[in-house]
Amino acid sequence: MTGSALPVTGIPRSGLPPLAVVVGAPQRATDIAARLDDAELAGENREYRTYTGSWRGTPVVVASHGVGGPGALCSFAELAEAGVHTFLRLGTAGSLRKDILSGDLVIAEAAVRDDGVSQQLVPAEYPAFATAETVPALVRAAKAHDAPHHRGVVWTRAAFSPGVLRLPMREYLAAGVIAIEMELSALLVFAGLNGLKAGGALVIDGNAAGDDVGPATYDPHRDVVADGVHRAAAVVLDALIEVGEADE
Ligand SMILES: O=P(O)(O)O[C@H]1O[C@H](CO)[C@@H](O)[C@H]1O
Ligand SMILES: O=c1cc[nH]c(=O)[nH]1
């Protein structure tokens, strides 16, 4: 990393394309970048691996943000500083509904702010909402790619493994929340507070509606999940371009 790079992610201080797909895992960023034209590594440090390239002729960023809201926020802040103004997260999530299956895509309308970090930015009553136009853009792209999809509210939760406290699972199921993951609400709040656009689509990697969510029931390394992520990458990139075109 050079002195001209941003300190956490190692990306340049300015000049990145305004449209970004953000993902948890560095390898997922590499896999998606391999499908871009003219992909180049723009920076790498810790869990943050960032590429630039173009998708259907439009310059984009693909970046990994790691696991958990606090670390992910460091990446979102540096990406925004470097020029990104629209973020779509392509993540994985546990399903909270029997009819939402492994490999399906959940398109987020909003997220429960149980991320453990956004409460330090703004009071908890402030909503974590997806930028309105991201939702129909993702739905249209999912249909175009024949991706089984669902839309609704996602539970972003900081703790992956249970502790001694009872999870409010029954309450969130009764409230109609459809999937659980770990970073989206931090992204949506960050975008809301900074006049940026953000949304997300999550590939289901199993059912997480029990009281014993966490490592004991977690099995994301299956073909049905890998196939879902591969399909979702094209969905999210297409939706990102559509949202970007609406800005022009
Ligand atoms: O697949 P990613 O994008 O990392 O998303 C999910 O997977 C991780 C948990 O293993 C958390 O980051 C969670 O949000
Ligand atoms: O947080 C997460 C992410 C993926 N799958 C889960 O069950 N939980």
Explain the overall architecture.
By secondary structure, the protein is of the alpha/beta class. It has one domain: 3-Layer(aba) Sandwich (Rossmann fold). It has six helices and ten strands, in the order βαβββαβββαβαβαβα. It has helices spanning 26-33, 69-81, 134-144, 169-174, 184-194, 223-246, and strands at 19-23, 37-45, 48-55, 58-64, 86-95, 105-114, 128-129, 149-157, 179-181, 197-207. It has a five-stranded mixed beta barrel with strand order 5-9-8-6-10. Helix 4 links the parallel strand 8 (149-157) and strand 9 (179-181). Helix 3 (134-144) packs across helix 6 (223-246). The chain is globular. The model has no long low-confidence stretch (mean pLDDT 96). Bound molecules: 1-O-phosphono-alpha-D-ribofuranose (R1P) and uracil. Uracil (URA) binds at residues 92-94, 160, 180-182, 205-206, 208, 213, 218. It catalyses: uridine + phosphate = alpha-D-ribose 1-phosphate + uracil. GO terms for molecular function: uridine phosphorylase activity. Residues 19-240 form the Nucleoside phosphorylase domain. Its EC number is 2.4.2.3. It is an enzyme of class 2 (transferase).
